[in-house]
Amino acid sequence: MLTDYHSHILPTLDDGPQERSASVEMARLFATAGYREVYCTPHLIKGVYEVSTARVLGERKALQGELDREGISLKLLVGREYYLDEFLLDFLADPLLLEGTNWMMIEIPSHTSVDLVKNTLFAVARRGYTPLIAHPERCFLLEFTEYELHSGGMWKKWFSRGSTEGNENELGNELLRYLKQLGCKFQANLGSFNGQYGNRVKGNARLFEKAGIYTHVGTDAHSPEALRTILGSGS
Fold first, then answer.
1. For 120, what's the count of Cα atoms within 13 Å in the CB-facing half-sphere?
2. Alpha helices in 168-234 (DSSP H)
3. pLDDT tens profile 63-102
4. Which residues lie closer than 8 Å to 108 by C-beta, 6 or more apart?
5. Looking at the predicted structure, is the pLDDT value of residue 167 above 60?
6. Looking at the DSSP assignment, which residues form a beta bridge with residue 37?
7. Which helix (H) or strand (E) holds 217?
8. What class, spelled out in words, does domain 2-233 have in CATH?
């Protein structure tokens, strides 16, 4: 059974669909591609996207009802994509975890400090939640440090000693090693593997895959058009 762990399928909550009809179209695409579950993970960024948990749950209920009436066999599960900044700890009192889990999906922006990432995710883990890092291949703070780029822009090598085979003690990035040891999980964007975000991110995704970093996969789809491209490309 295919499960998408990261999507922006719910309408009117963030930069995803603004009409429910577009959300229904996305659901049809998911179902046709063999998906049976999709986690709805709208952004939560203070001052930008701050809809209430009640509204997220209400939009899920309304969309699920529409899918059921349309005969689209897709189960919608809820969560949030929390933005790691100085305000994230304010939401730890009652976070919307990925439904049925203790996972808290968190996006790490590339411009933040390593200390803020470590301190914040340590606090999340100490509360008993497991950070699920959204699309780490897009975060330059988590790139491997031992690499060379050849003229075509792709990775020439990734570790001087070869594949880590999932051994975090040999990871070239100290922050990534810390997050692994903290117990974080890592979600790959399906479109990253085929260059949707550029060759640099594509290279990162391939290296993360080889190193056994990823634990989950999602489309991170925001529209029917984007979802068609992602599902058409595969991995």
1. 26
2. 174-182, 199-210, 224-233
3. 999 999 999 999 999 999 999 999 999 999 999 999 999 9
4. 84, 117, 133, 134, 136, 139, 141, 142
5. no
6. 3, 75
7. strand 216-218
8. alpha beta
Q: Which residues contact 186 (CB under 8 A, 6 or more apart)?
A: 132, 133, 136, 179, 208, 213, 214, 215, 216
Beta sheet of 130-134, edge-to-edge order? 43-44, 81-83, 103-107, 130-134, 185-189, 216-218
Q: Residue for token digits 């969560």? A: 79
How does strand 155-157 pair with strand 148-149?
antiparallel
Sheet holding 35-40, edge to edge: 2-7, 35-40, 75-78
**Inter-axis angle of helices 53-70 and 20-32, nearest 10:** 60
pTM of the model: 0.88
Report domain extents, the chain: 2-233
Distance CA 217, CA 208 (A): 12
Nearest Cα neighbor of 222 from 29, 85, 73, 62 is 29
